[in-house]
Amino acid sequence: MRVYDIIKKKRDGFELTREELSLIVKGATNKTVPEYQISAFLMAVYFRGMTRRETLDFTLEIASSGDVISPLDLDGVKVDKHSTGGVGDKTSLIISPVLSALGLKVLKMSGRGLGHTGGTVDKLSSIKGFKTELSYSEFINVCKKTGLSIIGQTKNLAPADKIFYALRDVTATVDSIPLIASSIMGKKLTASDDVIVLDVKVGDGAFMKSEEDAKNLATVMVDIGKGAGKKISAVITDMSEPLGYAVGNAIEVKEAIDVLSGKVKGDLYNVCKHLTAEILYLSNYGDFISCEKAFESAISSGLAYDKFLEFVTAQGGSLEDFETGNYLPKYKMEVLSESSGYLSKLNAEKVGVSALYLGAGRQKVDDVIDLSSGIVLNKKVGDRVEKGEILCTLYASNESLFERAKAEFLSAIEVSAKKPSDRILIKETIR
Ligand code: URA
């Protein structure tokens, strides 16, 4: 079988066999197929798409192209929540300890932030002493001890995806549903989770800008998960404005701590409650209402916060700086409203870019970020705002970064005379 013939077959709209897809994935991973042929293959998929069977086979090949996590001696239901990426999304920091406080096991490899979206590993790295790199046995042992461990993705996790993604990035083939779905699920399926809930974000700050695209992506990913024998669902949630009030790294950890200790509710709390309940529901914990109640009581009893502390300590971290307020950088700037009315827009992508300008995000994968910088919002969409009132506070280690970040933030907002209609946070669940 020649790679040329596989590319031609896909180009002409035919369905590829598992063997043909395997040859492409293995050839990309061990570099026996040149990048120009892999790029041509990706372009053919971009135009011709993939059938459900092809998408599943391609994903399974990506998942098995490198390391897999399969701790045979880890008791209990293994669960995970995966978000397609957004701004201010610190849900993993809240949901994971809640789930382990309720007796489930969370063994998670998380990604780093890129562009306007943040990453869980960067947020955890802002905790003094916290180790995001553990050996395989340390990773499993922390989970055995605390019910929860989160580390960064290892270099050899789904290596085929890294090659495909880098080529997609430079060949205008990123926005293809089968390629996105197989990339996300190829990484997810390296873990031996029993239950997976996908948080598919939709809106200005998300990969998927329209509900129709988000639903298509969610449906394909749920199909892949089912095909791989998982209990899986996808919840489509709003990302038209940032989730919660904090955008950055350390300041997002602080907000997560405030939610875990029952001090803060609002959109972040509600999304976490819904996603946690969905995971519990698929794990046969009970009906949906009792799953929501389990989330509420894990927070109000303090068990979830205690679990977070136990997990952070087990990975070498200390929350002392968050207790003393010592997690912020040297400089801050308040951004004031230039008019009165209702905040009717708070474009999540632009807020994410503003935080990136402050040093909180990276434009290229190897950029170094300032984990203490970021934005704390004072107003969210629907809030009344008066001229001169504080819209947000920008935090940075270098004062020269403020002007550009402030201009970007102001371009993200709209203030109007009419109160906007209420935001629908949870749009749909695909089971
Ligand atoms: N996230 C991924 O991991 N892959 C994609 O293709 C898009 C988003």
Tell me what the structure shows.
- By secondary structure, the protein is α/β, with parallel strands linked by helices.
- It contains 17 helices and 13 strands.
- A four-stranded mixed beta sheet has the order 1-4-5-13, with helices on both faces. The chain has a four-stranded antiparallel beta sheet with strand order 6-9-11-7, sandwiched between helices.
- The two termini are 38 Å apart.
- Uracil binds next to helix 9.
Kindly identify the CATH topology of the largest domain: Pyrimidine Nucleoside Phosphorylase, Chain A, domain 2
Low-confidence stretches: none
Average residue-wise pLDDT: 96
* Count of alpha and pi helical runs: 17
Query: Which ligands accompany this protein?
Result: uracil
Short précis:
The protein is of the alpha/beta class and 431 residues long. The chain folds into 3 domains: 3-49, Transferase, Pyrimidine Nucleoside Phosphorylase, Chain C (Transferase, Pyrimidine Nucleoside Phosphorylase, Chain A, domain 3); 78-177 and 185-321, Nucleoside phosphorylase/phosphoribosyltransferase catalytic domain (Pyrimidine Nucleoside Phosphorylase, Chain A, domain 2, 3-Layer(aba) Sandwich), CATH 3.40.1030.10; 327-416, Pyrimidine nucleoside phosphorylase-like, C-terminal domain (Aldehyde Oxidoreductase, domain 3), CATH 3.90.1170.
